[in-house]
DNA oxidative demethylase AlkB (Swingsia samuiensis), 214 residues
Amino acid sequence: MDDLFEAMRPSVEIGEGALWLPNYAVPYAERLMQSIEQIAAQAPFRKMMTPGGRLMSVMTTSCGQWGWQTDEKGYRYIDRDPVKQQPWPEMPSFFKDLAVKAAAEAGYLSFSPSSCLINRYAPDAQMGIHQDRDEGWFSEPIVSISLGVPARFAFGGVKRSDPLKRFELRHGDVVVWGGASRLAWHGISRLKKDFHPLTGDARYNLTFRVYQPR
Ligand SMILES: O=C(O)CCC(=O)C(=O)O
Ligand SMILES: [Fe+2]
């Protein structure tokens, strides 16, 4: 697509309380990637196992007070990286500022994420349709930032049987879902072979979440 039209993609309400902000993070993309590399130097990307014993195709790491974990013990948040056996890398303050600003665009004014899950998709990696529900704090939204190679995002309703709408998330796109859409089912189709000057053949996704033990 022409660069001018690419820059003009308007924001779209993809569900009640769910807003897609095309290009929103483009000005921060290089800094985000540099920080992701620094985070991954401390807490390396790893392939985690689902509780059912299947290896995820996506590689993950986390920053912030809490990191998302899945293994034979189940899905949960933990405050230490089990690979490096040390606390997760700090969430850079500009990560948090960007996520807070994006959440506010969608009307969520009290967002203060304690966790940032970072997913790395190589070609053919995918994420099956799921809900983000391990946080518990469902009054707070999820803020998602996409970098690199584009991907097909499926977004449905809070019932698994609700119809899925599909959108192409591109480099710098942000999606915020909360309120009536907080528990919406969503997923990412198998990543096609492609190239982005900043990420090569990979796609990165950051999801900012509020988690605290109750
Ligand atoms: O990669 C994405 O855009 C979505 C990731 C996601 O749904 C998750 O990490 O829970
Ligand atoms: Fe998710």
About this structure: The chain has one domain: 10-209.
